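Supplementary Methods, section 5.1.

A reviewer requested that the exact input to the structure prediction be made available. We therefore reproduce it here, unchanged from the version used in the analyses.
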Amino acid sequence: MNHLDLTQFIEPGLYLVPSEGEAIVLTRKVIDESARALLNDPQKLTPSMRAAADYQPCDICPERDTSEICHAILPTLPFLDEIDRYMSYDRVTAVYREPDTEILMIRETSMQEALQYVTILSLMYYCEVGRQYYSFFHSVNPLMPQIDIATAVFHNMYHDCEGDLQRLAKTLKTMQEELLQTTWCQVKRLRLISQGDAFLNAFVSAQTTTELMLMEVAARLRGMQGPLRRPGDDR
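The structure derived from this sequence is encoded token-by-token as follows.
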């Protein structure tokens, strides 16, 4: 693992530290500023790019007829040149600072897994369709293993659905169908402009996480009795 100067990780968000070169800063502040600059720069986001079919909002997007470009692609576009220098399997030290805390999570992982933070923001915050599910990812740390993310999202959905497993299963089915479509749209867009595979595989991993959530719901429906219990509830 790289020797890290922890004083450089002040803003909440994700920092990727490769074995060589400078850290890639993927905080919400930097992502938002870079996305706004991109939208306002016709040299970077050319009229022909904006007009391309694969850049248009998805069929299920509520702003399909009014938006110039899919908003879900914005968190990735400003960082493609930096990320494309790496393959999805390249190792990187990922540092994540949660909002409103001094705690840092530091993990040596693959570039693909580290980019889960960007895919979650893309699909659940910038995407108009996915935004309705954003609250389900409360307290999800993007450096968690996929199964832990699936479990955390399930807990959030369970409480949002007030323990109604049938309602939860229906919500997750709709969520899975919509995320499958919006994720596939991102993959098609990235294939047009990305020279690497890190972002592409990160979005494919997002599909896998959704599948894991569906499997967990099915298991709960088959065997769960009574209210959901979290680890430590008996203390």
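The mean pLDDT is 82. These observations are discussed further in the main text.
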